[in-house]
């Protein structure tokens, strides 16, 4: 022992100087002292001592070697820092890696603490290019310890997160305490193997977020996640499709799970995704048997109860908007849920409830058998028939409480919730819309009485509102500093009483006029068509919400006017009008060189990303097109008309709408045919805009040409023959690099793919535009057949709505 102590001292003096910094291993007689590094063979990672932020303490850690900003991915002595630069790392006589403070060479600060059978002389520690520090027996080459089994807050590609039942090892991430303290923080990311395994973020021992349960629907853009669950192991891992990309998944000290990628161009880490962020993300936000809707388009509150359930405390629920109490079953006392004619109600496209209370009955079972299976067992509260990798249909059944259900229109599954016979009958009645004759008289009496009541109520409300409006005019913009309420007279004066000369254009929701306020400021006034189906207060709420969305690529809403027949919105004025006025104009299009067009593409993508996920509200634009992209003096793009889809919510249900607002040529197939919209429909429209920007041609201007039904039809055809360059706007060709343009075309084609799941999310699009990351190859886009066949060759069932279309650029189609 004494000898070893002596040895450590002497080696410090000798080897400290002799140490070669290009080494990636340490063996028995070497040490790493503060100031030395191990560097992995391909120069990807370094191991050494560091002090985070302003901390004076020293930690042993691993960081990215090629990233300018020191980014630590693993820390050895996270809870036992060394005071001053006096750390020594070596291999002790038992073959363990040990970290000492120079001032105390007896008791290690940190140790790998494994029992190694081999003698110390043949144990080697090596820093691999994956960022893994391994300790292995040099003779048998067997690993005795590795840092990937003891992660701190970062998960690197190739690392496994989860349980190894053979060794009893559980690997999970624990956040740092703060940016300058890598000590064990309060948040952790763990796999809970109960029921069907899921990933959770814990705060202490409490769940705060739940990932998608068994990730049966993995589709990989850049992060290629995988999941293994067998009798030996349950773990999640990921790989990277592009080996040159530097990225990581980390749980930061505030409890956010982030996917981040290093952007060499900007010299900083860019966030690719971060959770929790939507109001529905916190675990159990709507309580037991509740269901959360992150878009809550059709309600004022994001929480609702599953069918057959009602709020436990209606007061908390409706007035305080606190859903944590959850829901309880209706008619709990009077009817039984079992063996009394009960049935199942479908809830479509949801993140399925917490599966720790669920059981996979079978990986290969028809939906009908799955239902039978659930019905047989009285404690089965719901089931789902889930398509696994397009091969099998798994049957998942829940027993007991249903927690943490939320609508997810992109990756959700359908679940079937057990309800009693009464509920089933009520739902059937609603669907049929027919009432028994016997009830007609009663209904008639009730309706006459309630009609009178409604008339009286409305008169009262109207009088009250009228009074309030007068008050509002006095209040003006005082109560909402971010938005102004304009008087009708002000608007009339500004727009010269809506003189036709001031008309700027016609959008999907109304006519736009140019105006000049008395202070000389130029504005654009949008007169919304009357049928928004909203009351004044609702309208005001919506406008206040929308006014809070602020982004450099969104047109700024200055105020509104709620006097008069139609509500009006007042926007900042964009002197350069809209993108289509440049793109499709022979003389003006040359003003937009490639640099400008690329900046416009990126700007539009950032704006859409913001409304999709970065703002608190999740907004789907639904009518993205070049005429809705306005340009400011510097030709920066600004998206207009966002949020209007919220105001004109009309009679839409959760994921379908009876009223299709949009423009042919920009609408995704699932939206045109089924009225189904999601953020991916906006991605589709973005893809069209991108391709129009590059080609300078309207997507729907091809209908006269025989061979190609649309611009994307033609570009897809040429792309496959590697002739896409022929489609690039000729006025661009001298100002651009072909590689860059072709990359953009590829991104555009990825966005317009027919399959919703194959289309990238907006965050992936922004990433692809801003990096050199390799791109997947696009599959067949939608609408590559002749345009007229969209309407006539419909495979719609008779009950589906049918749209009559007579122009190629209609802005609004109302379907019956
Ligand atoms: C380590 O150093 C000791 C003392 O200098 C020496 O006896 C031993 O052979 C060395 N071991 C290795 C593997 O170099
Ligand atoms: C660290 O060392 C410095 C002097 O070297 C001393 O003043 C300080 O108290 C020490 N801090 C701790 C926490 O031991
Ligand atoms: C080392 O491991 C043993 C059991 O494997 C454990 O009892 C002991 O507390 C550990 N020591 C340290 C310092 O972690
Ligand atoms: C962790 O939680 C404890 C108990 O709630 C709290 O006192 C402490 O400040 C938290 N620590 C951090 C770093 O948030
Ligand atoms: C589990 O481990 C045992 C023994 O290590 C092995 O024989 C078996 O094939 C493993 N099973 C799976 C599914 O990997
Ligand atoms: C994703 O990972 C799986 C399993 O690790 C692998 O089989 C597959 O080839 C990977 N896909 C891509 C695109 O890298
Ligand atoms: C119902 O399912 C639960 C959970 O799988 C099980 O424990 C129980 O025995 C089942 N009851 C019947 C009657 O099959």
- Which molecules are bound besides the chains? 2-acetamido-2-deoxy-beta-D-glucopyranose
**Fourth-level CATH superfamily of the largest domain:** Transferase(Phosphotransferase) domain 1
Strands across the major sheet, in which order? 27-26-34-30-35-32-33-31
CATH class of the largest domain: Mainly Alpha
Label the structural class: alpha+beta
The share of residues in helices is 10-25%
The proportion of residues in beta strands is 25-35%
Tell me the distance between the termini: 89 Å
Domain Protein kinase: 498-783
Enzyme class: transferase
Keywords: ATP-binding, Cell membrane, Disulfide bond, EGF-like domain, Glycoprotein, Kinase, Membrane, Nucleotide-binding, Serine/threonine-protein kinase, Signal, Transferase, Transmembrane, Transmembrane helix
Membrane topology: Single-pass type I membrane protein
């Amino acid at each position: 022992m004494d000898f070893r102590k002596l040895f450590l001292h002497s080696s410090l003096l000798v080897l400290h100087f002799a140490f070669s910094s290009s080494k990636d291993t340490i063996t028995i007689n070497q040490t790493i002292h503060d100031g030395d590094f191990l560097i992995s063979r391909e120069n990807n990672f370094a191991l050494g001592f560091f002090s985070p932020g302003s901390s004076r303490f020293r930690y042993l850690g691993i960081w990215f070697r090629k990233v300018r900003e020191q980014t630590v991915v693993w820390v050895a002595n996270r809870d036992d820092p060394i005071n001053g630069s006096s750390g020594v790392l070596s291999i002790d006589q038992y073959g363990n890696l040990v970290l000492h403070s120079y001032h105390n060479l007896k008791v290690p600060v940190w140790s790998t603490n494994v029992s190694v059978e081999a003698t110390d002389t043949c144990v080697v520690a090596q820093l691999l290019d994956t960022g893994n520090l391994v300790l292995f027996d040099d003779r048998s080459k067997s690993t005795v310890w590795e840092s990937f089994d003891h992660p701190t807050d970062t998960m690197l590609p190739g690392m496994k997160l989860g349980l190894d039942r053979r060794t009893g090892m559980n690997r999970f991430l624990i956040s740092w305490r703060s940016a300058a303290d890598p000590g064990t923080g309060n948040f952790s990311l763990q796999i809970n193997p109960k029921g069907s395994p899921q990933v959770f973020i814990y705060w202490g021992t409490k769940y705060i977020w739940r990932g998608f349960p068994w990730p049966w629907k993995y589709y990989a853009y850049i992060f290629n996640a995988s999941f293994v669950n067998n009798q030996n192991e349950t773990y999640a891992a990921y790989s990277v499709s592009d080996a040159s990309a530097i990225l990581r998944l980390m749980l930061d000290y505030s409890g956010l799970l982030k996917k981040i990628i290093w952007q060499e161009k900007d010299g900083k880490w860019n966030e690719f995704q971060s959770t929790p962020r939507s109001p529905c993300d916190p675990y159990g936000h709507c309580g037991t048997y509740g269901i959360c809707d992150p878009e809550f388009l059709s309600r004022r509150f994001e929480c609702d109860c599953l069918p057959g359930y009602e709020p436990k405390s209606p007061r908390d629920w409706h007035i305080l908007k606190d859903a944590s109490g959850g829901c309880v079953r209706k008619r709990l006392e009077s009817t039984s849920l079992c063996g009394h004619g009960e049935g199942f109600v479908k809830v479509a496209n949801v993140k399925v409830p917490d599966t720790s209370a669920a059981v996979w009955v079978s990986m290969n079972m028809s939906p009908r058998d799955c239902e039978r299976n659930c019905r047989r067992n009285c404690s089965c509260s719901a089931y789902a028939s889930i398509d696994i990798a397009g091969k099998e249909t798994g049957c998942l059944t829940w027993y007991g409480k249903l927690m943490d259900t939320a609508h997810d229109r992109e990756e959700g599954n359908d679940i079937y919730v057990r309800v009693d016979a009464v509920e089933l009958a009520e739902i059937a009645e609603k669907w049929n819309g027919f009432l028994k004759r016997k009830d007609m008289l009663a209904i008639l009496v009730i309706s006459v009485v309630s009609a009178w009541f409604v008339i009286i109520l409305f008169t009262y409300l109207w009088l009250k509102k009228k009074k309030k409006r007068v008050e509002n005019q006095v209040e003006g913009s005082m109560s909402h500093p971010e938005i102004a309420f304009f008087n009708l007279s002000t608007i009339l004066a500004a727009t010269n009483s809506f003189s036709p000369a001031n008309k700027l254009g016609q959008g999907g929701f109304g006519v736009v006029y140019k105006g000049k306020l008395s202070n000389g400021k130029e504005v654009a006034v949008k007169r919304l068509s009357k049928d928004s189906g909203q009351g004044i207060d609702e309208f005001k709420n919506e406008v206040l919400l929308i006014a809070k969305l602020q982004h450099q690529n969104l047109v700024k809403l200055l105020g509104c006017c709620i006097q008069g027949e139609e509500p009006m919105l007042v926007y900042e004025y964009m002197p350069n009008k809209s993108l289509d006025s440049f793109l499709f104009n022979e003389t003006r299009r040359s003003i937009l060189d490639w640099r400008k067009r690329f900046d416009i593409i990126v700007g539009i993508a950032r704006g859409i990303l913001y409304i999709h996920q970065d703002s608190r509200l999740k907004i789907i634009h639904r009518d993205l097109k070049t005429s809705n992209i306005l340009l400011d003096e510097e030709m920066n793009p600004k998206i207009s008309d966002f949020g209007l889809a919220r105001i004109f919510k009309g009679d839409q249900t959760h994921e379908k709408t009876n009223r299709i607002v949009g423009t042919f040529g920009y609408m995704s197939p699932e939206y045109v045919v089924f009225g189904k919209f999601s953020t991916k429909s906006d991605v589709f429209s973005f893809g069209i805009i991108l391709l129009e920007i590059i080609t300078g041609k309207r997507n729907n201007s091809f209908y006269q040409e025989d061979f190609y039904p649309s611009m994307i039809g033609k570009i897809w055809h040429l792309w496959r023959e590697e002739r896409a360059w022929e489609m690039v706007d000729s006025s661009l060709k001298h100002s651009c690099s072909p590689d860059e343009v072709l990359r953009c075309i590829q991104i555009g084609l990825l966005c317009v793919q027919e399959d919703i799941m194959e289309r990238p999310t907006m965050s992936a699009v922004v990433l692809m535009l801003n990096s050199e990351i390799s791109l997947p190859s696009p599959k067949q886009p939608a609408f590559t057949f002749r345009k007229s066949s969209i309407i006539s060759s419909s495979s719609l069932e008779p009950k589906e709505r049918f749209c009559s279309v007579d122009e190629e650029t209609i802005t609004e189609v109302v379907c019956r």
